[in-house]
Here is the input.
Amino acid sequence: MHLHPKDPNFPHPAVLHAVCASASRWASHDIATSPDGTRRDRFAEFHVMMQACVLLSWYFYQEGRWVEVWIFAGFQTRVAIPLRLNYPGTFSSQGGNSPGAYLAPPKDFVDLECRRRTWWMTIMFDRIVSVGGWLHGVDEKDIGTELPLCGTDFDSSSNVPGNPQDLATPELFIRHPAGYTDSFILFLKSVMLFGRVTDHNTRSNLRAPNLPTKGQNPFQIPGFQELDNLVSEEFLESIPTSFKHLGVNDDGSLDTDLYMVHIVPHAATITLHNHFLNFNESNNLSTARCVNATRAILTAYYRLSETSLDISRLHPFVTICWYLAAVVQIQLCKYFIEINDTARESTVWGEINVLRFIRHAYLWQPVPDRK
Here is the structure.
């Protein structure tokens, strides 16, 4: 502890949190009695299990260590449920035949919003690491927590009423209330929307006798049409005017959340339609959806490349979006090779190399000094 906080040998914050929580057994007198009569140290239970895990998950996420994020996201969801962070107001005194919450009611505005944000960061990690087709740790139907407040209200402790939207709110993904919408909340919605695509794919394939085929009409699959409209068109069209831009500002700043808002739905579209790509059918809607989504992801990168902004500041999730775009381009290139269209093959090869280059640059460039 004599080291400077910026010293490379300084203990990781999560370790310090764990030490403090362990020490609280002897030093802390902040004992809370749960509704079921259990006496618990509020600091030790909540602080180390959730906040430290969120910190570690974020570190692993930034490092691209997806296996660790998957493990920690799973652990966090298991811990958050008995804490009742999935309930409105992030507290419940009882739950059917199950014991009550391990946490006392939020003591103030900041405590309540911290619980909301801890929960939603947990769910966001769970959705992000599941995009490859893995099951989510918590089903949407079991989430009653309202969406977080805008960051400015949280930072200023404005004590505004809670967000009127939760996952059960009708038209959640196309209605964005003024005063309760910022780039982070839109990013959260886009990730949850991608989560619905993951749910659709995993559940459709779980008991299907055969894998999806290129000749299959996906719009005959229950729920596909509605999800396609929402992911491919309605969400992006509904984004409020003040958030229509990519977050690449003239003053040299970059809103990384807003940038992702504009490309995550395209990555979700590719994930939804990729199994049904068929370049031999000129009117194949899945092909058109994937090609248009890939173009949008590339266009967003080209806009960023026009600036001197550091791409390493983007969310690591962006590499998955670039990868999915490359998957489509590789299949398109293969098709052009098969029909001997060398001109368009050359163009697509160039775009594949762009995607390959930016992923390599993002993953391997040195982390800039942020002093």
